[in-house]
Amino acid sequence: MRVEVERITGLLQAIYDGEAWHGPSTREILTDVTAEMAVYRPSPQVHNMAELVVHLTNWRVFVLEKLTDSVTYDIILNSEADWPVINELTEEEWQEKLENLQDTQDELLETLSRIHTPKLNDPVPGRRYNYYTLLHGLLHHEAYHSGQMAHLKKMLV
């Protein structure tokens, strides 16, 4: 009874580093992005690629925590944990952020491999929605912000 979980897993893989339905995958977009490019901000109100990567990573950690039934783990919307401000970055720091994103991908795939479809109907601890909504939200979130990163990268190359 893993059919729906396997579909979600397949979409997560495609969006991150496969053949995504919406265009280049997240990893493909981030290929050859330097630290200097990652902190490029076309206007003060726009998040840069580094902020988007950390934002995605932090929300993936949120999903992982909820998948392990954490009641207390939370991210306050529009907080530093939700949207960190990153104006400067060394190449080493940028690579670390990319590695953290990859690590959460690996952890999500591992965690999802142990979940059965009936859990998708269970409520997420501390939330008013179920795991199905949480995981599909993660997919939409990833695709949306990947599009933003693709747009920022196109401004630079």
From TrEMBL:
Domain DinB-like, first and last residues per copy: 26-149
InterPro entries assigned: DinB-like (IPR024775), DinB/YfiT-like (IPR034660)
Pfam families xrefs: DinB_2
Regions that span the bilayer: none
Protein name: DinB family protein
